[in-house]
Amino acid sequence: MSKRKLSAMRPSDGVVWITGASSGIGAAVALEMARRGWQVSISARSSDKLDALASQHDNIVSYACDVTDRKGMQKTAQKIETEMGSLAMIIANAGIYLPTNFPEFDVSIFDKSFDVNLTGAVNMIAAAYPFMIERKQGQIVLVSSVAGYNGLPTSAAYGATKAGLLNMGEALAVDLAQYGLSVNMVAPGFIDTPATQKNTFHMPALMDVTKAARAMVDGLEKNRTRITFPKRFTFWLRLMTFLPRQLYVRLLSR
């Protein structure tokens, strides 16, 4: 068991693998890490979008796959190890937002959200973990959301998955530190991406996706356990976790 201080992985340590990288913050992070010298493997279901992104930088290679396909993810991890090199960092970024609207209770929204956002992250970890644990080094990154801090309107399914990622990430960080593996949890606020551009409500402190990617990678380079941005927004949401729950529910219900 390793007792050394955990340090962030560097481009010289191997390859970073990013899911949900065909657009949005995943694509922006891929480009940012490639600019910083990383060999970047990117995955999503859309091979056309992945190939278009890979064509923008010599350091990026696309591997189309679906995070809900556990065996497919395992095959992809093996392929990256064979073709590109050692997996030094994985970024479980794939996610979907399906709003819950009542009085109808649509169970399928929960099923789909859990499969992609939560189980999809587990599938990625399971695929890369054998390689990392054998080398006793690696960085596991879980992209959650500030929606995981507190219950928010229309986010019963989405928020549950993001809260699950934060809890799972903290538990894994405790369990895996002795084996030389780091775990980072990323909790962004509203980021200007194709996904958020569909929202019809006001999004406080909406952040440019390129700036968000830069903030995220800066945090990963410092190996921060919890990375949030933009600070002026995420600070207040964190603070709201200390409100009495009855008061919080009453305020949000209005």
TrEMBL record:
Instruction: Please name the source species.
Output: alpha proteobacterium IMCC14465
Recorded GO cellular component terms are: membrane
Per the UniProt record, which residue ranges are transmembrane?
Answer: none
Q: Which InterPro entries match?
A: KR_dom, NAD(P)-bd_dom_sf, Sc_DH/Rdtase_CS, SDR_fam
Q: Which SUPFAM superfamilies match?
A: NAD(P)-binding Rossmann-fold domains
Alphabetized, the UniProt keywords read:
Oxidoreductase
Task: Supply the name of the protein.
Answer: Ketoreductase domain-containing protein
What's the family? Belongs to the short-chain dehydrogenases/reductases (SDR) family.
Whether Oxidoreductase counts among this entry's keywords is yes
